[in-house]
Design brief:
alpha+beta; NADH Oxidase; 9 helices; 44% helix; 221 residues; 4-stranded antiparallel beta sheet; 13% strand
Length: 221
């Protein structure tokens, strides 16, 4: 591990604090339109146009996603972007029948997975303190940390895709075991969920389903 210390560390922390103050002075909150786009009026989609995703946009989405917070900066999510006909046919083996057309019609389907050996990367990701001992030999804790934080990163991914103008349709109607055998055999990766991305054909939408009110599910104590 190699982490900054002394004056170098003080300078880096001061720069980080200044950057945050500058960000908050420049942008105090997102506009209502921006919030509508990424969550409030956004929809999960089931049908897609044939408009391709521009070159470089997947990398941009990743660059946004990877900035989201995770426990101890573990960043356990791994993203496999399935674009080819061959890849789609392999992935279709895992899907429930009603989900096949949704996936095959999308320009890209992301497999959001978690690396169960994520903690081996902690010397790079969390260099100021060696915490590998928390996970080495502690399978339940490792699995819990990987699953929770990869799921968080999957949600960041969906919001990032919407933020740059794409539509998304997450799917859990598939066999994780088949995906893992087809794509991750012999690796430390396990699938979490799937997410179709592209430009939606909104004619497949139905009415938005109900949501809870604040008082239905929230408490202030």
């Amino acid at each position: 591990m190699s982490a900054p210390t002394g004056a170098e560390l003080d300078a880096l922390r001061a720069a980080a604090q200044a950057d945050h103050r500058a960000l908050r002075s420049r942008i105090s909150r997102l506009s209502d339109d921006s919030i509508d786009l990424i969550l409030r009026d956004a929809r999960s989609h089931y049908a897609w146009t044939d408009k391709p995703i521009p070159e470089g946009l997947l990398e941009e989405i990743f660059d946004i996603t990877i900035s989201g917070p995770t426990s101890m900066n573990t960043l356990p999510a791994r993203f496999i972007f399935v674009k080819s006909q061959e890849g789609k046919e392999r992935l279709s083996k895992s899907l429930k029948p009603k989900n096949v057309a949704k996936m095959m019609g999308a320009p890209v389907t992301a497999i959001i997975a978690q690396d169960m050996d994520f903690w081996h990367k902690l010397p790079f990701l969390f260099p100021h303190e060696d915490r590998r001992h928390l996970f080495d030999g502690h399978e339940d804790y490792s699995e819990d940390t990987a699953y929770r934080n990869a799921t968080l990163q999957g949600a960041y991914f969906m919001i990032a895709a919407r933020a740059v103008g794409l539509d998304v349709g997450a799917m859990s109607g598939f066999s994780n075991a088949i995906v893992d055998e087809e794509f991750f055999s012999g690796t430390s990766l396990k699938s979490n969920f799937l997410c179709n991305i592209g430009y939606a054909d909104e004619t497949a939408l139905f009415q938005k389903l109900p949501r809870f009110a604040f008082d239905d599910v929230c408490s202030v104590i």
